[in-house]
Design goal:
The chain is 32% helix and 30% strand. The protein has helices at residues 22-29, 58-76, 91-96, and strands at 5-12, 35-42, 49-55, 79-86. It is an alpha+beta fold. The relative contact order is 0.28. The chain is built from 3 helices and 4 strands. The chain has one domain: Alpha-Beta Plaits.
Length: 102
């Protein structure tokens, strides 16, 4: 796998996004190796929280999921769902549809 890995994460809790201390969380997240970006997500009618991340390697994405994200889910009392995606193999198709990640 190359240098572009996407991670989708969702923590199953019901917390309105306005109550999430996202500024402090952003500071803590930026300390994790390999994170390039995050797009926050808030579930419509569910108030689940999550995000769509870009990492520089599969190893860093896995470490983030099993470390920082797992701890965050535990602190919130929620269930964590994580999926990893190969961003290199879909580059041409994504560029063709004007993805901001390429």
């Amino acid at each position: 796998m190359g240098e572009k890995v996407f991670l989708y994460a969702e923590i199953q809790v019901s917390i309105p996004f306005e109550q999430i201390p996202w500024r402090e969380i952003d500071v803590a997240m930026k300390k994790n190796p390999g994170i390039k970006s995050k797009t926050w997500l808030s579930g419509i009618n569910t108030n689940t929280i999550g995000g769509f991340y870009e990492f520089d390697s599969l190893e860093n994405a896995k470490a983030y999921a099993t470390g920082y994200l797992a701890e965050a889910a535990q602190q919130l009392g929620g269930s964590l769902t994580v999926r990893l995606y190969n961003g290199d193999v879909v580059a041409d198709a994504s560029k063709a549809i004007y993805s901001p990640f390429y």
